[in-house]
Amino acid sequence: MRDVVIVGAQRTPIGDFLGSFKDISAIELGVIAANGAMAQAGITSDLVTEVACGMVYKAGNKGNPGRQLQLRCGMPIEGYAYTVDQQCGSGMKAFELAFQSILLGKIDVALAVGMESMSQAPYILKSAREGYRMGHSEIHDSLLYDGLVCAIQGYHMGVTAENLVEKYGISRAEQDELAVISHQRSIKAIMDEKFKEEIVPVSVRTKKGPVIVDTDEHPRADVSLEKLTAMKPAFRKDGTVTAGNASSVNDGAAAMVLMTMDKARELGVKPLARVKATANVGVSPEVMGIGPVYSVPKVLEYAGLKASDIGYYEINEAFAAQFLAVNRELKLDMSKVNTNGSGIGLGHPVGCSGARIIVSLIYELKRRKEQYGLATLCVGGGPAIAAIIENI
């Protein structure tokens, strides 16, 4: 079996909803991350023959954003590119597909990208093509219609978190406490410059000239239990899931260059990590957030490893309740999970996050000098996806 390694891994800062990146498309953010990853690897774009892009909010971005990114980056026109939507898992699914193409011997070098601009998700007039002859019609917010509302159950993803609250007896206090921890960890990571290696700065045009954004925008130093406790339930009148203990709506991109170990040696490129395994599972849509409970043992099995072999985990926080439910089952040591923040503190640009958590995992493994790391996400509709990488 071919040995597949990651030789470049970069991401943009995560922008707030309607924040610094509101006028920058997902494709532009993806190009910035992709160019950063290739520059870090020390390779030229002509070596990349496959581009796999994960993206959820494609409406208004024209056809196949992955191909647009590929050509903007100067990659060979004879190469191929595609765009995949697996909701929150899109960036990791793109990574998996690129990994599999190399593993199967189809190519030697690939680029995997997760990219999203939730700020630019458009509104949709579904009946406009036939014309409005009389009466009212409805404008659909694609932010909800194409992602945040479950396509199968017809209700907001926040309701799936409330379902887990009921099933696992999770308190409001537990959720708010985790949200505070997520922000505190994110702020500390920024203060300690832990993201410096993985972030490629973004130049933003303003009326006063270009401004360089090189720091995640969402983490809040002033988040407190008092403030979170005062927030009202967002999804059920008598619920406990709020905007404060849920992940946020954001913009950002992450990219990785993958190749065979033989190709890396040929090019004189130093690998960052080895891809050990990926895995996918499905759970009931109404409790989609519990997916990592099943993706984690499955990817461990595929990698031929035990839970005790994993030195660090990135488990995306879609909701505090969701993460708490997962850890009720997995019982992980919190000193080895999301220690630099996750979806609540850092933000969750949905098409980007699956790639972002692998990028962040790579660098945290190096800081900790751990051998194996595991990244996983729950996914709207019920799938879950996971990956294990080896620090080299």
Automatic annotation (TrEMBL):
<dbReference type="InterPro" id="IPR020617">
    <property type="entry name" value="Thiolase_C"/>
</dbReference>
<dbReference type="Pfam" id="PF00108">
    <property type="entry name" value="Thiolase_N"/>
</dbReference>
<comment type="similarity">
    <text>Belongs to the thiolase-like superfamily. Thiolase family.</text>
</comment>
<feature type="active site" description="Proton acceptor">
    <location>
        <position position="378"/>
    </location>
</feature>
<dbReference type="InterPro" id="IPR020616">
    <property type="entry name" value="Thiolase_N"/>
</dbReference>
<feature type="domain" description="Thiolase N-terminal">
    <location>
        <begin position="4"/>
        <end position="261"/>
    </location>
</feature>
<dbReference type="Pfam" id="PF02803">
    <property type="entry name" value="Thiolase_C"/>
</dbReference>
<keyword id="KW-0012">Acyltransferase</keyword>
<dbReference type="GO" id="GO:0003985">
    <property type="term" value="F:acetyl-CoA C-acetyltransferase activity"/>
</dbReference>
<feature type="active site" description="Proton acceptor">
    <location>
        <position position="348"/>
    </location>
</feature>
<keyword id="KW-0808">Transferase</keyword>
<dbReference type="InterPro" id="IPR016039">
    <property type="entry name" value="Thiolase-like"/>
</dbReference>
<dbReference type="InterPro" id="IPR020610">
    <property type="entry name" value="Thiolase_AS"/>
</dbReference>
<dbReference type="InterPro" id="IPR002155">
    <property type="entry name" value="Thiolase"/>
</dbReference>
<feature type="domain" description="Thiolase C-terminal">
    <location>
        <begin position="270"/>
        <end position="390"/>
    </location>
</feature>
<feature type="active site" description="Acyl-thioester intermediate">
    <location>
        <position position="88"/>
    </location>
</feature>
<protein>
    <recommendedName>
        <fullName>acetyl-CoA C-acetyltransferase</fullName>
        <ecNumber>2.3.1.9</ecNumber>
    </recommendedName>
</protein>
